[in-house]
Amino acid sequence: MTPRVRTALLISGRGSNMRALIAAARAPDFAAEIALVLSDQPDAAGLESARKMGVAAAALDFRSYPGKAEFESALDQRLRAARVELICLAGFMRILSAPFVEQWSGRILNIHPSLLPDLRGLKTHERALAEGRSGHGCTVHYVSADLDAGPVIVQARVPVLTGDDAETLAARVLIEEHRIYPLALDKVARQLRVAGARAAQA
Ligand code: GRF
Fold it and tell me: Which residue among 27, 50, 163, 190 is least crowded, i.e. fewest CB within 10 A of its CB?
């Protein structure tokens, strides 16, 4: 059997996308395995959920490092020690530096709650409503050095309904996030396996 692609999930909070990815990766034919969950926040609720789901989870407390470079160096070491090949940001609220992104080029995915390239950045549901949009959604994309600007892998659209507030709209988008993030991870992991097999043959 082809080995599955060892994947780390980086979180900062409740971890609902993380749970969707862990659950999907239980399927025997899923191309990625969730090797590790890491949080930059020691009190992230997702850490406990990951352990309950049988996945190793640890905090790398951002505040215990002198700066971003030291934090990212510790993160990089941790990922390499766990033989991680692919990283999924799942509600990870820290912007990774260009050198870190470069080191992991083509191997970091993120989920963003808008139809990119529209509504990059924060407060996307509030902004979709304020702009009177009729449609909204979510995007899984590769992470590049520019925030929320890397190549799109999968998107899903939802309607904005009369009477929506940011909470109802976010809940409708979140259902789609949980559906498309596993699809995108499986797709990218399959591509990496093919590329790895080709490289091994060459
Ligand atoms: C999601 O809305 C995701 O799109 C955004 O942060 C939120 C994380 O939620 N990047 P959760 O921690 O996965 O529940």
Answer: 163
pLDDT, tens digit (0-9, with 9 covering 90-100), for 73-84: 999 999 999 999
Which CATH number describes the domain made up of 5-201? 3.40.50.170
Report the atom number in ligand 1 closest to the C-alpha of 17.
13
DSSP alpha helix (H) spans, 98-165: 98-103, 124-130
Residue 93 has pLDDT above 90, yes or no: yes
Q: Domain coordinates of the chain in residue numbers?
A: 5-201
121 within 8 A of 197, measured Cβ to Cβ? no
153 phi, psi to nearest 5 deg: -105, -50
Which residue spans within the chain are E strands per DSSP? Answer: 5-11, 32-39, 57-59, 86-89, 108-112, 135-142, 152-159
List phi, psi (to 5°) of 54: 85, 20
Q: Which residue, 52, 21, 23, 18, is CA-closest to 38? A: 18
Residue among 53, 177, 185 whose CB has most ligand 1 atoms within 8 A, to mutate: 177
3-class DSSP state of 181: helix
Instruction: Look at residue 50 in the predicted model and tell me its pLDDT.
Output: 98
